[in-house]
Hints:
With 463 residues, the chain is mainly alpha-helical. The chain has 23 helices and no strands. Residues 158-461 form the Na+/H+ antiporter NhaC-like C-terminal domain.
Amino acid sequence: MEYGILSIVPTIVAVGLALTTKNVYVSLLLGLFIGNVIIFDGNILSGVDGIIKSVETVFADGSNLTTMLAISLMGGMILLIQKAGGVNGFIDFLTVRTSLIKSKKSANFITWLIGIIVFVSANMSSLIAGSIMKPVNDKYLTSPEKQAFIVHTVSAPVCALIPLSSWGAYMISVLENSGVEGAAGVMIKSIPLSFYVVIAVAIVPILILTGFDFGPMKKAELRVIEEDRLAKASGIYEKGEDEKTTTCLLLILPVAAMIAVTIIGMYITGGGNILNGAGMRSFLWGVLSGIAIAFVMILGKKVMTFKEASSALYEGWVGMLPIIIILTFALGLGDLVSTLGTGEYLANAFSGILSPALLPVIAFIIALIISFSTGSSWGTMAVVLPLVMPMAFTMGTSIPLLAGAVWSGGLFGDQSSPISDTTVVACSATKCGIAEHIRSQLPYTLSVALISAGMYIVVGFIM
Length: 463
């Protein structure tokens, strides 16, 4: 059944309310309700029951459960290491013993760099870079909004720029399904032509080193400085007596084990090819390995008792429950949007205004709108590329340029949509509210999108 323009209503309601009310729970829940009412022809009772079915659908997907379990255990591991003194030891190592980080700029830059290094999984990148660097960034008064922006920008976009993971395999498969010959070669050629992705990743260190902020992000940065000033003036700024400081290895070794086991897991699950590996399942293995290493070190050094360590792990795990609820609603809304055919409706609505030179920029805009509406970059790629590629074959448009435009549009939504799973994960790692993250980040992502659109117009006439 085709739902036409009604298919975009749940997303508009959810995103609009989230940005205006800052209540993400109610916004997503209302989006789910309206979407189900539309599916059940206006039946309100069926719409309520549909919310339950949407949640059941999310939990019926094994990959969703794996993601939730990995995120929860990661939260537990970080709190365990923090209470054992490993986080303070890591801060001391970076800021005092090695002087690797001496300022806010260097703390932000190292966060950006870690996100790039961990390129095998978007969510893994955000969780690692955001979680282990948050205490350091907090020390140098970086707002949660700025931290979320940094780690989110180098999560999925970097996976697309360095496609040596399931991202590369997926991009190749979408190209092949769209009738592109020599898909692997086209994918490689399309990477530098993914203008939004390249600019978004490159602009972060420029903003960091220049200290340039604007809009809600600037207000957030000034807010943190003012809160710090007031805290110091009131005398409530002192470190708690129960905060330990131990060796930095208590953080470094578990995280290193987690990364190593994740990569090995992707090699194993991919049948010897890391490109085909199961990213989140491998990451779950990695997190469990990191927890095991942390427990061995903590108990071996008698930093905590087994009961204390277990309680810390459990506390961190339970502390991630609000994020898991948001992720559940977001994934449910994503499935609902797919059922309503939102992506197909938007793609068909724009398909009549395509022309050879403007095909790349129109494809970019279509992908941008769909990805923001659905929160899925992969889903957007699967919808848009098969639509525009046959036109490119007929019109003679550059295939790598068109592919780069679709990747770029898809990743805009992955980074900018409040219902994207990477948005939820980036916010959980940096303890930033989702509405606050989106509001402060949108001026940046929209600016990059505008520049990218201009480049696709110019290059579209040249290539």
